Amino acid sequence: MPEYYISTFVTPAIFSFILSLxxxxxxxxxxxxxxxxxxxAWLINxxxxxxxLIYQFEQSLFWASLMNASLVLGTLLLVLGTLNFSGxxxxxxxxxxxxLGMVWYTFGFYFNISYILLNLPIFILVGTATIxxxxxxxxxxxxxxxxxxxxxxxxxxxxxxxLMYPLSVWIHTPISFIYLVSMLAKLGITIGTLIxxxxxxxxxxxxxxxxxxxxxxxxxxxxxxxxxxPHQHLEYINPAFTTATGYACEExxxxxxxxxxxxxxxxxxxxxxxxxxPLHSETTFEFAVYHKNGQIVYLESHSIxxxxxxxxxxxxxxxxxxVTQRKQMEEEIRMLEEQQKKQMKKALSxxxxxxxxxxxxxxxxxxxxxxxxxxIHVNYSFEKSIGYQQQDFVSGKVNxxxxxxxxxxxxxxxxxxxxxxxxxxxxxxxxxxxxxxxIGLLSVEKIEFDNRESFLLAINDxxxxxxxxxxxxxxDRLNLIGQMAAGIGHExxxxxxxxxxxxxMFRGREQYSELNKYFDxxxxxxxxxxxxxxxxxxxxxKTPPELEPQNLNKIINNLRPLLETDALSQDKHIxxxxxxIPEVYxxxxxxxxxxxxLVRNGLEAMAKGGTIRLRTFMDGEEIVLAVTDEGSGIxxxxxxxxxxxxxxxxxxxxxxxxxxxxxxxxxxKARINVDTGPTGTTFFxxxxxxxP
Length: 692
Known about the structure:
The protein is elongated and about 195 Å long. By secondary structure, the protein is an alpha+beta fold. It has helices at about 5-30, 35-55, 60-85, 90-110, 115-140, 145-165, 170, 175-220, 240-245, 250-255, 260, 270-275, 325-360, 380-385, 390-395, 405-420, 465-505, 515-540, 550-570, 590-605, 635-640, 655-665; strands at about 220-225, 235, 285-290, 295-305, 315-320, 365-370, 375-380, 425-430, 435-450, 450-460, 550, 575-580, 585, 610-620, 620-630, 670-675, 680-685. The strands form 4 sheets. Strands 2-1-5-4-3 form a 5-stranded antiparallel β-sheet. A 5-stranded antiparallel β-sheet has the order 7-6-10-9-8, sandwiched between helices. It folds into 5 domains: about 5-205; about 220-320, Beta-Lactamase; about 360-460, 2-Layer Sandwich (Beta-Lactamase), CATH 3.30.450; about 465-540; about 545-685, 2-Layer Sandwich (Heat Shock Protein 90), CATH 3.30.565. This is histidine kinase. InterPro entries: HATPase_C_sf, HATPase_dom, His_kinase_dom, HisK_dim/P_dom, HisK_dim/P_sf, PAC, PAS, PAS-assoc_C. It holds the Pfam family PAS_3. Its EC number is 2.7.13.3.
């Protein structure tokens, strides 16, 4: 191959390929995008020289277009890499103009345009882009002059060279000279960009070091480096050491023994261990030192060892944090926890004491039974009601099933307990120590007692209640008998009326006049029996009375002459005080009977000259009838039994008067209250305005 082709095409191609490899290596090492773009640009540039060499032997549209595309694309990538390096973005017009140039060259070659017109636009485009790239390098702010001038000058030179290339046929410049200048310029670009890259790295490194230094000098954590080669010493420590310990950095750097002097004695063994057995990985540990003012400072160190390739420990770097406040908080928390434990223990003790008092002093029989029924505790009410003592259960003489009446009852209860079913007011039968049967309502709650799962049993002994129910049943039967007696009373009354009529007839005859005193006695006794039957009938009456709106004052006024006559016959007085009261539903005849009974009882309770006060008034919404006597009062033993049939303090009394009053009041849904004392007694009958 002629020397011309080697110097013109082959040598620049090889040189461009070598530059491409250099940039690719830098890209793999540092990963910067501009290295990648430059590597691709020089590779395409090398390819372009080889295509140009082929074109010298085979001048076709294909090789011409490919050569043109390589030239434009290589220049474009070179410019893009430069823009990326300088931190600027490419304008879209750059891509458009590049594409337009390649289209122009392809069509121009196809239509056989003159050499000057064909190449001039392309090389003007490439030259202008290259010159502008050089100017970009001149404007870089963060670059030193050496690399900036070499790179910018090389781009300007190659740009001018590209502009002169189409004119070489006119000015008769050797092509080899143009390619030589281009190759030298590209070499300058390579050298200049490398210088710029390393200068930038140095600037960035300086900035990073400055930033790290500012960060290290101003951080609140202590940063240190302890070197082992060539000899052990503290190489660096930041000012946070002064804040934490009160000692200046220069003091500890110039006096290595200060570390040992300020280290708390409790941690001397840790220091010896670290020096004797160097760290093999990241390690975190705590230690304490004395502050310059004598106080103890707690520190936490996070250290990282650095080893050489042959496994030799070079240094230890790390961060030390002041954890004194955290330690104080931990101590406060520990003390608080201790205090809380004491309080909880005290509260638990108080709760246990309260539970113990509530358990042992409860009025209800209670027992605590372990889940396996081996341990039973009972309270005092249990001992009193059931009869078994705590010692009976402790000694094993009695167990849970001994006070249940039936085995199936025991099996049913134990099954419910084992299933954890909630038991509330379960009715069961039990046998006390005296072998008497009782009835109770059982409630069970699962608890923990003496660190054992147990059951708390509470028994509501309703044996007395059941006995009362039986007694009420008996009284109901007596009531039935009373009603039957009342029915019989009606049948007795009829012949008594006949007998009384004949006695009155015989008394009126003159031949029997000497027997009149006997007739009067018999008639009086018949009237007394009739009155007794009337009271019986009133007590036995269960049908509701016929009620009509009545004014209590009007009933009293109608009775007033009769009441005053009774009082005057006994040398006593009636005082009537009636207030304005509304009407209320009542049975006139029954209220008539109630008033007569109360007033006559009062008259009988007083001595001669006494006064009965008969009053009506309103007490809230209630209409009140009050009958007050001036007797000596009612004895407490009698007072609590008032209203009971046949209860009387009079020699000839039947004990049915007040019982009838209570019965009438009950049928009218009224209440009778009694206020008694040495100066007299008052009966208050309270009616509700809505009636019964």
